Please model this.
Amino acid sequence: MNRPEAQVEILYSAGEIDARVTVLAEDIAGSLGDDLMIIAVLKGSFVFAADLLRALHHAGAHPQVDFMSLSSYGTGMESKGTVTVLRDITDDVAGRNVLLVDDILESGRTLAFARDLIRDRGAARVEICVLLEKPGKRKAEVTADHVGFETPDLFVVGYGLDYANFYRELPYIGVVQNDTVD
Ligand code: IMP
Ligand code: MG
Model:
């Protein structure tokens, strides 16, 4: 498949992201303690989760990490709310302090589903960390405990976020210009 050509304008530079991730890690270690389990929601969060993990080391934590791949299906452009597990975690979360890590909190359906699943499996605490939050788009009842940036309602790519599964490799977060998206 060919990469869709798009004009990408930098919204958050690599340096800005790095500084924010450092602060987030300190907040998370202060809130959840040093013995925590990170569950990264794939695919979008993998770059963020990797940087956050290393920042947590510098913040004195020694987290374990697992991955979960979720998909929300629907007709049309917006997900309609049915979330399915494409790949489940393999670790036991019972009694653990869990940090769910995702790229963007938008409708909240994906993270509400993940949070309920991990709670039902007996986690002691579940907190949510997202790199970006788009306010005013919430459809499910979910609040992020740790937010990288409150971002305007624009389509963004880079730092793990994709457009048609491309652009994840950009070291910054950029806005795809409207006239270049079909
Ligand atoms: P929701 O909160 O369940 O609606 O899921 C949000 C998901 O939609 C994110 O995890 C992304 O995968 C995707 N998404 C939302 N906005 C954007 C964007 O601007 N760029 C790339 N992916 C996005
Ligand atoms: Mg996602």
